[in-house]
Write a structure and sequence with these properties.
Strand order of the largest sheet: 7-6-15-16-17-14-18
Radius of gyration: 22 Å
Pfam family, one: Amino_oxidase
Largest sheet: 7 strands, mixed
GO molecular function: oxidoreductase activity
Pathway: Carotenoid biosynthesis
Strand content: 15-25%
Structural class: alpha/beta
Organism: Salinirubrum litoreum
Number of helices: 17
CATH topology of the largest domain: FAD/NAD(P)-binding domain
Protein name: Phytoene desaturase family protein
Number of strands: 19
């Protein structure tokens, strides 16, 4: 596992971190542990960024991330500080990991036992069990090589990828081609292809635009397992905040940054109520917002045309529902998939519009955790990926809400339309206003081939000395584990650059 580089050169530095998402919280912990004086400013009333919580009338919803994947990343993060996840929260492995309702009436569970899953695959296509073994072997290889040499190690230049010492690792990776091309080499049945590709939604991509390298997500899914932290993903936010508090991080909520002025050794971060002085600044706010709204034009690395030309991960239409009674047979995680989901992806990336026949995700944490809903009730949220930047009006939400509830009833057999006691929606405009999210994306920059690794924006500003970035727009990318790692990568780059700057000053 990756050894974190020496961060001692950050000791004594004052740092303002803008944004309390997982990237900002992670960075703050590494900096504070290194001896920096860290102040974290969060725009909203609670920490966690997109991992906010909605609590009302005895219901508690994770508003954003709800899957706990890649437990090794959380162990690595807490382990660096001499801690363990179980010092803060308990994990339960879900069984099933998730349930899939296909819209032709078919239903399938993916479970912790791989042999059972192989039998399911074989039932759809002769030879698919052996194909799954081969696929997962490649996925595991990609995961182990990719994580050690290309995720924890920040390869941010062409020269890094041309390094001869990396050739022996890169040779075996599935670097070229799309996920669709890769999966088709192993499975013919469209339903099996969908099972191997549903995780692309977590990366903000589609089978045709996501590099084959991300087959590593199947190792995460099938081999490493799907877990639930007691209390939900919000409990993980609480854990990292508590760790940061132990390390000396000073948190300020309800403190949106309005401007970044100055440079290394003389920064001023302005908010509506106070100015914060610092030697260095790290932004976990969305990269585009930081550059376009917090910096003067002459200090921006990228212009408006650059941000307009990016491929953004989907936004989402979200329904948070408190439901009277149970919602069986929905599992903790359920996916509802059309037998052909190409049209839905086309309506996200190619011809943006509200999907006619959506693929969507249902989360029922009350199937696992009694504390998230009052007795006799269920906690359910529905998430439909939609194109970033779509028109979002109350009328459109109401129309789509009815479509989704009808679709749930038709394709899972669960009719909740007359049992809803609490209801909230969240959509494109909310992502934009609550999280300063470009085009209302729910995730950030999609992981297309042209927006992966060195093709993502850098962790340091090339125009403002001493300004750094962390979070999902940077490497390694989208998702809670990746944002945790981005905090480490940012801290390492800061330490390296500050060490160089101090050496230059002494010379």
């Amino acid at each position: 596992m990756h050894e974190v580089a020496d961060l001692d050169s950050l000791a004594g530095e004052s740092v303002v971190v803008i944004g309390g998402g997982f990237g900002g919280l992670s960075t703050a912990c590494y900096l504070a542990d290194a001896g920096a004086d860290v102040t974290l400013l969060e725009k909203n009333e609670q920490l966690g960024g997109r991992a906010s919580r909605l609590e009302r009338d005895g219901f508690r919803f994770d508003m954003g991330p709800s899957w706990y994947l890649m437990p090794d990343v959380f162990e690595h993060f807490f382990g660096y500080f001499g801690k363990s996840p179980d010092d803060y929260y308990e994990l339960e492995r879900l069984d099933p990991h998730y349930r899939i309702f296909f819209k032709d009436g078919d239903r399938v569970d993916m479970v912790p036992d791989l042999e059972t899953n192989k039998q399911v695959f074989e039932s759809y296509e002769p030879g698919a069990a052996d194909a799954l073994d081969r696929y997962l072997e490649k996925s595991k290889e990609n995961y182990e090589i990719g994580m050690e040499h290309f995720v924890y190690e920040d390869r941010n230049s062409v020269g890094d990828f041309l390094d001869p010492s990396l050739a022996k690792y890169a040779w075996g990776l599935s670097l070229l081609g799309s996920m669709q091309d890769h999966v088709e080499k192993y499975f013919d049945h469209p339903k099996l292809q969908q099972i191997m590709q549903y995780t692309l939604v977590f990366l903000g991509g589609a089978p045709t635009n996501t590099p084959a390298l991300y087959n590593l997500m199947s190792h995460v899914d099938f081999n490493m397992g799907v877990y639930y932290p007691e209390g939900g993903l919000g409990a993980v936010v609480d854990a990292i905040v508590e760790l940061g508090d132990e390390l000396g991080v000073d948190y300020h909520t309800g403190a949106p940054a309005t401007a970044i002025k100055g440079r290394r050794g003389g920064f001023k971060v302005e908010t509506d109520d106070a100015d914060y002085l610092a030697d260095l600044v790290v932004s976990d706010a969305d990269y585009a917002h930081t550059e376009q709204e917090l910096l003067p034009e002459q200090k921006r690395q990228y212009d408006e045309d650059y941000w307009n030309s990016r491929t953004y991960a989907p936004s989402a239409f979200l329904l948070y529902l408190g439901v009277e009674g149970d919602v069986d047979p929905l599992a903790h995680h359920s996916l509802v998939l059309p037998t052909d989901w190409d049209e839905h992806f086309e309506q996200i990336f190619d011809d943006p519009q509200w999907p006619d026949d959506p693929a969507y995700y249902l989360c029922v944490p009350s199937q696992t955790d009694d504390s998230v809903a009052p007795e006799g009730h269920s906690n359910l949220f529905a998430l439909v990926p939609i194109a970033a930047g779509l028109e979002d009006t109350p009328e459109l939400r109401e129309e789509y809400r009815n479509l989704v509830l009808d679709d749930i009833a038709d394709n899972t057999g669960v009719d909740i339309r007359d049992r809803i006691v609490l209801e909230e929606t969240f959509c494109v405009n909310d992502f934009a206003s609550r999280y300063n999210s470009r085009e209302g994306t729910a995730l950030g920059l999609a992981h297309t081939l042209r927006q992966t690794a060195l093709f993502r924006p850098p962790h340091h500003s090339e125009t403002v000395d001493g300004l750094y970035f962390t979070g999902s727009f940077t490497t390694p990318g989208i998702g809670v584990p990746m944002c945790l790692i981005s905090g480490m990568v940012t801290a390492e780059e800061m330490a390296d650059r500050e060490r160089t700057a101090k050496t230059t000053r002494r010379a």
